[in-house]
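Box 4.2: Ligand-aware structure prediction
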Amino acid sequence: MKFKAWLKTIIFYEILIGMKATLMHLLHYKPITLQYPHEKRILPDSYRGMLALLRYDDGTEKCVGCDLCEAACPSRVIKVISAEVPDEPTKRFAKEYYMDMTRCLFCGLCVQACPVDALGMTREYEWAVYDKRQLLLNKGQLLAIGDRSYPVREKRLELQHPNVAFFNVAFKHLPPKES
Amino acid sequence: MKLEDQRTTVYKVDPEHPESATLPTLRTEELLLNMGPQHPSTHGVLKVILELEGERIVKATPVMGFLHRGVEKLAEDGTYHQFIPHTDRLDYVCAMYNNFAYCRAVEKLMNITVPERAEYLRTIVAEVQRIIGHQFWLGTQALDIGAMTVFFYTFRDREILLDWFDELCGARLTTSWYRIGGVERDFTPSLIEKLRRFLDYFPPKIDEYVVFLEKNRIWLARTKGVAVISAEDAISFGLSGPTLRGSGVDYDLRKYDGYAAYPRCEFSVPVGKNGDTYDRYWIRVQEMRESVKIVRQCLDQMPAEGPIMADVPSVTLPPKERVFTNLDSMIQQFKLFSQGFDAPRGEIYCGTEAHKGELGFYIVSAGGGKPYRLKIRAPSFIHMGAFDHMSRGYMIADAVTIFGTYDIVMGECDR
Ligand code: SF4
Ligand code: SF4
């Protein structure tokens, strides 16, 4: 027993078994790393990447300027200035919409908060810039991100859910509710 | 006078009167060494002022706060829901545990019962996070000690789980998946299948990690009998988790507090004997095996259907479909996101067994939608308190392994 232990000591037995485990991998060698700029990981659909503003299938903006995303955001990324749609006193929209992406935590609370699903998280992540000011996005830029990331757009909310709360969209042609 | 003369005159001893010689006495004093804050193995930005005698540590004073971001203060500024993403950034390698501990504390404050399916989901994800945490620890600790291979192997398997998290909640590290009263998203069949595949794949891999370490004389020399702490000292320093259990104290909140789905699972709590780094390593390896068992049992027992969010309209967020279709839910959504819920006055402490130790949230509520004060009992911080005690008498090189043995993450320590 003692001799065995001594033998193990002088032949560096632990290194041998470690090398064996490592060399075994050489037999079925399969790289697990990705050569990043050339190969990219396939991201899941639920990926929480860059934020975007979305549109309905008829091209109108979904956002109703309700400010809830601004209230929900834990790091005060969003700034919404809402206004009434001209000639339609019950309809509102976001006149200006800014996001300071330098502070965003990508937590998804704004997306969860939005009552009309006007915000979405895309699978974009390559947003490194040289100038920090380029990360202060306005409404046009956010809509553009949405347009390129969500080519399939949803129907208007009141068409998806006929009993939708009326102040939400103020759609004139909605059939009156029974009850 | 030339330099040579100076030397000869000063050190010259008169042979007639040797006692009158002014021999220079060797000055001995302790050497003060600043280790960090940018030392690669301090796990973040930790500075330790070491007082050394030769290579032995006489006194070690950790200087913390380099990563202080005022998280506790931030909590006072937002609603209870808004703090969940900030908890991700406490212990940034294991965000799920922070979410879990925080949500549990708020649920205790608000007296909410989580639905059964959500309890199982939470337990599964927490245990997966525990596996990730221990893999991370094992890899970095081995790296600190000089074994590079283990690091690659643990990170290879950790990647699988992080990608699984990515599919679950959309982020690999900053997960924010737990919500007050439940969880954000349900498992999909593909997630369950991937997890089951991982559970079959993983146990042989643990043996593979162990091969590199268990018999390795360098690993044994650097861990056995290093950073020993007795059970009494460990308790009086307030240590918890594997650091406490390594000293032979059988204390695990999962077992003795019995939250989430743990009481319905069979698992054992590994307990060490000697209270040294090796025992803590052994415990962590065993805990990985136990976690695999827990996840497997939870997957089998989990109800196939059921709500994943408690239905307490004044506190929990309504599901999105209801917001679109139901006016009450929409009002609730607006109220919860803009003002938060009305918490009762009172204080609550709720500890959760994270993989590092007991992660506790202490909330003082003065009513209203925001906490009046929130205190985080971060295991890393408490463990740093014992650093001086545990490192006295060891070599400088051991200081690195002693931080490592607590599994500290400075994000949590400085908060
Ligand atoms: S993802 Fe989070 S931090 Fe970013 S804008 Fe939305 S709520 Fe704010
Ligand atoms: S919550 Fe949605 S609808 Fe309201 S302002 Fe924000 S993006 Fe627009």
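In the box above, the bound molecule is iron/sulfur cluster. The first strand of chain B starts at residue 31 and ends at 35.
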